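Incident log, structure service

09:12 report received: a user says their structure output differs between two submissions of the same chain.
09:20 pulled the input from the user's history:
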Amino acid sequence: MINYDYPLNERVRTLLRLEDLFAKAEFFASQAETLDHHAALLSLFEILEVSCRADLKSDLLQELERQKHVLEALRHNPAISQEALDSFLSDISQTAAKLHELSGKLGQHIRDNEWLMSIKQRTTIPGGVCEFDLPSYHFWLSQDAETRRIDLHEWLAPLLPVYRGLQLVLNLLRDSGKTTHQVAQQGAFQQMLAGRVAQLIRITLSRDIPCFPEISANKYAINIRFTTLGGIQKPRACDLSVEFDLTLCNF
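09:34 re-ran on a clean worker, output below:
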């Protein structure tokens, strides 16, 4: 199955972008090749740009605290595993505590590193980090893989509480929705929201279906048009009846 998440507000859009960038940064940093570590550093620079919102940390803390109160109310619910609930509440508390420990602007340790910022500045130029442009960066990339991994972890580690916080928030959001099975006749689907509020739309469909959803939505309606890749041609509308699962997520 393939999941497609579509945010309906700017806050969720920012969290989804950061989730994607952190996953890439961690993956590439764990590899051994020079190009992998270059990709990890590029992802780190993008995280720096996206996380510059001053209220990101407070937004995460506020949402975690709100969800903690919601979950605490389930403590005596016989349908809920108390062991799993305690574990999740502990995870929320530990993540919130680590977020509280972050001081100053997110990523300030990177902004204060003149060498890293000189590399970041050159990455905006196509081919701008060639060895003749940045011999010091070429030298760093020529170090052994473990040395580079240690450096990448040092630069990434102060931001990881944000990653864990947004993972918890997004997982709670994704689990909050009710899933319905739908069919897009000739690749088109529309549903009126009729007063329902959603922060995230999740569409799930089989990998065997040769198309993908293009989504537009507002507070009144959801419009989905399934599209297929046309080889060297531009994507074209899919005229099949497509079965998919639709989840409207909202805290």
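09:41 both user submissions now match this output. Likely a transient worker issue. Closing.
09:42 reviewer note: The chain has a mean pLDDT of 90. The chain has two domains: 10-171, 177-249.
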